[in-house]
Amino acid sequence: MTANISYSIDKKTAKIPTPPISKAYKDDMNRYDEVLVSLRRIIRATDMHSKKLSKISGLTSPQLLILQTLRLHSELTVGELARKISLSQATVTTIIDRLEKRNFVKRERGSVDKRKVFVYLTPEADTALLNAPKPLQESFVQQFQDLRDWEQTMILAALERVAHMMDAQHIDASPVLDLGQLDRIDPSH
């Protein structure tokens, strides 16, 4: 059922009057605005932390995640590393290339299977890890784990729905809070 509303143009201003806005529509817009503000806050917090991390350590969050993962596992191929941090092998390879240029990692062929190339930390990476601030997700993970199961499930479902609504379900992402290109910082340039 459509409303039969007619509008006339104001000849002095040549403007078409805007239709009346219902209270329900205003309420929906307020919720919509609140959601967008919350998303902007999340993006802003992530961006601010990424800049702080970059300024203090010269590393991006994904670079830090790779170094931390390599510290936990003594011997990983690029493919194994990519699976552990939920990024594509191509993305991890690009990040490893940059870390290798900065002498934070080295690659060596396997002694048993020469086809495999393993990635290892260098002493310079150990120093960088000691000086790096805590990743933003550490604080988030702690607070998330303190929630009840139903709250965790509700947040996960809502965020998955938002990602789908933003057509972002196929974007390469790791469980690390960072913005922009995953390998964008290269102080050698």
Please give a structural write-up.
The protein is mainly alpha-helical. The chain has three domains: about 35 residues; about 80 residues, Winged helix-like DNA-binding domain superfamily/Winged helix DNA-binding domain (Arc Repressor Mutant, subunit A); about 40 residues. About 55% of the residues lie in helices and about 5% in strands. A three-stranded antiparallel beta sheet has the order 1-3-2. A hairpin with a 7-residue loop joins strand 2 and strand 3. The longest helix is centred in the N-terminal third of the chain and has 35 residues. The C terminus is likely disordered. It comes from Thalassolituus oleivorans MIL-1.
Count every beta strand, where a strand is a DSSP E run of 2 or more residues: 3
N- to C-terminal distance: 63 Å
CATH class of the largest domain: Mainly Alpha
Low-pLDDT parts are 177-189
Q: Name the CATH homologous superfamily of the largest domain.
A: Winged helix-like DNA-binding domain superfamily/Winged helix DNA-binding domain
Order of strands in the sheet with most strands = 1-3-2
Tell me the helix content: 55-70%
> Which structural class fits the helix and strand makeup?
mainly alpha
How many helices does DSSP assign?
7
Query: Whole-number average pLDDT?
Result: 80
Rg calc:
24 Å
- The number of distinct structural domains comes to 3
The general outline is: elongated
Kindly estimate the percentage of residues that lie in beta strands according to DSSP.
Answer: 5-15%
Within the CATH hierarchy, at the fold level, what is the topology of the largest domain? Arc Repressor Mutant, subunit A
Order of helices and strands: HHEHHEEHHH
CATH architecture of the largest domain: Orthogonal Bundle
Protein name: Putative transcription regulator, MarR family protein
InterPro entries: ArsR-like_HTH, HTH_MarR-typ, MarR/SlyA-like, WH-like_DNA-bd_sf, WH_DNA-bd_sf
Organism: Thalassolituus oleivorans MIL-1
GO molecular function, one term: DNA-binding transcription factor activity
